[in-house]
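User: Could you check the structure of this?
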Amino acid sequence: MNDDQRPENGTFDPEKLAEISRSVCRILDLLGLDRTDPNLTETPERVAKMYLELFRGLDEGAEPKVTLFPNDEHYTAMVIEKDIPFYSMCSHHLIPFYGHAHMAYIPNDKIIGLSKMPRIVDFYAHRPQLQERLTEQVAGYLYEKLAPQGVMVVVEARHLCVEMRGIKKPGAMTVTSAIRGIFFNRPVREEFLDLLNRRG
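Assistant: Sure, the predicted structure tokens are below.
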């Protein structure tokens, strides 16, 4: 999908939109809902547009373009960006999960533009996901592109599949982490977790 077809620009692939809309119509019919109800007449297209927007991370060419800079100051301490909000869809039930991602790396020869770190999270969140996979993908992408001494990513999220159905436990928080490089050293990892816990 090229830039002028991207959901954020208000347009969608018309063939995908029509096909998803037809599928949603079928679901509504199987549920015994009256699609002539004014509240439902435009629901199939609205749902189709929503899915195309929420899953735009699957589009060809959607991968973020990261801006890297030479580490001219020879900075070798930890760089942390925390409390990055995200929303995603659980691939098991297609129900939302949402929360915050926290990312840290220790640079070698390059540093990354800080605005790009949330873009990486956003890219992988916009597809059917598992929280564990999302965490690993973000860490792997940053480690591959930046070639730092190490990377660590922690994701905290609430899952509506846990809160709305099944066990029904509102407020339950799931925490996942992914580690690369020097963060396998316990003191480095503990430094990140200590800084992460200093809220405010």
